[in-house]
């Protein structure tokens, strides 16, 4: 940590936030980027999606650099593992990648390459021959279940589809009833999470809510937001990233409110976990947060998009 970072942390006056029980330190540590917007190996440019490996390596969809980078634990720089050869359509190029996940079963990682309208499977050892597994859709994120099935939200058709190896179209698992705010509809689904019971959690961005679709359900239930666009504890404003912890609590990046919210299914309001101090670059602030993830110790990582950095919030021992 630099002297400037230490100085800025010491100057922050901790204000009480509207939360029932915050389990995370409110001042974050920058673990990737944070050196301004740029293409250097110590920089990021509008990052979107992340995932964390068991060794706490962070994989980042570094969108405006058209690359995926890996930052190992305590490293000051990342390493390019896909793309990084300018925006384009060749096998060694990416075009505004928006998400990356690890497929441990196949010893590979999967990249949502938004500008190309396709999803790649990459091997870190063989980056020159990526496999296109899904194409011709507009999507921001990708998820994988324990059986290796891949789930992608299709923003254009307001639906989520599940893909098996060799599928040409995929199976509809949520939405698909046109754009709208009914329980069987979605409006700009952007990010998804699949749990052990194959329940699907969807950031329904322009409905300002998170939906839960149980396996084989014909409609979803609202588990966060759904009370119009706003900044109260009952509301969200363009939710994006969504993950669920082992106790079933739902974490969502509330993008335009510059905070991360936590909701328990069935409760009428959520609580602020981190952020919520307005848009800014201080260690207790966020600016348009996107993806989020846990490591194996349940520390929380947030993509701080407009600050071009990844923030780590340590879990406090109870």
Automatic annotation (TrEMBL):
<feature type="repeat" description="NHL">
    <location>
        <begin position="280"/>
        <end position="316"/>
    </location>
</feature>
<dbReference type="InterPro" id="IPR050952">
    <property type="entry name" value="TRIM-NHL_E3_ligases"/>
</dbReference>
<feature type="region of interest" description="Disordered">
    <location>
        <begin position="1"/>
        <end position="23"/>
    </location>
</feature>
<dbReference type="InterPro" id="IPR001258">
    <property type="entry name" value="NHL_repeat"/>
</dbReference>
<protein>
    <submittedName>
        <fullName>Uncharacterized protein</fullName>
    </submittedName>
</protein>
<feature type="compositionally biased region" description="Low complexity">
    <location>
        <begin position="1"/>
        <end position="21"/>
    </location>
</feature>
<dbReference type="GO" id="GO:0008270">
    <property type="term" value="F:zinc ion binding"/>
</dbReference>
<dbReference type="Pfam" id="PF01436">
    <property type="entry name" value="NHL"/>
</dbReference>
<dbReference type="InterPro" id="IPR011042">
    <property type="entry name" value="6-blade_b-propeller_TolB-like"/>
</dbReference>
<keyword id="KW-0677">Repeat</keyword>
<feature type="repeat" description="NHL">
    <location>
        <begin position="37"/>
        <end position="74"/>
    </location>
</feature>
């Amino acid at each position: 940590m630099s002297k400037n970072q230490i100085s800025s942390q010491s100057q922050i006056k901790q204000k009480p936030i509207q939360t029932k029980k915050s389990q995370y330190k409110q001042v974050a540590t920058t673990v990737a980027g944070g050196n301004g917007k740029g293409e250097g190996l110590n920089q990021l440019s509008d990052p979107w999606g992340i995932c964390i490996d068991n060794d706490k390596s962070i994989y980042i969809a570094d969108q405006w650099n058209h690359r995926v980078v890996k930052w190992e634990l305590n490293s000051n720089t990342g390493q390019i593992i896909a793309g990084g050869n300018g925006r384009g359509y060749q096998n060694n190029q990416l075009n505004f990648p928006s998400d990356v996940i690890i497929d441990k079963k196949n010893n590979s990682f999967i990249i949502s390459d938004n500008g190309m309208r396709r999803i790649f499977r990459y091997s870190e050892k063989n980056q020159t021959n990526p496999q296109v597994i899904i194409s011709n859709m507009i999507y921001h994120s990708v998820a994988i279940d324990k059986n290796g099935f891949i789930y992608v939200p299709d923003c254009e058709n307001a639906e989520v589809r599940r893909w098996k190896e060799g599928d040409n179209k995929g199976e509809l698992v949520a939405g698909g009833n046109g754009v709208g705010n009914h329980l069987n509809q979605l409006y700009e689904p952007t990010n998804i999470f699949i749990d052990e019971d194959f329940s699907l959690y969807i950031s329904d961005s322009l409905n300002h809510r998170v939906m839960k679709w149980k396996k084989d359900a014909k409609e979803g239930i609202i588990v966060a937001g759904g009370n119009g666009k706003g900044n109260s504890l009952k509301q969200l404003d363009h939710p994006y990233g969504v993950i669920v912890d082992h106790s079933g609590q739902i974490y969502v990046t509330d993008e335009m409110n510059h905070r991360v919210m936590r909701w328990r299914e069935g409760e009428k309001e959520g609580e602020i976990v981190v952020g919520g101090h307005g848009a800014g670059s201080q260690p207790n602030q966020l600016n348009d947060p996107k993806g989020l993830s846990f490591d194996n110790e349940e520390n929380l990582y947030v993509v701080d998009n407009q600050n071009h950095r990844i923030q780590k919030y340590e879990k406090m021992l109870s």
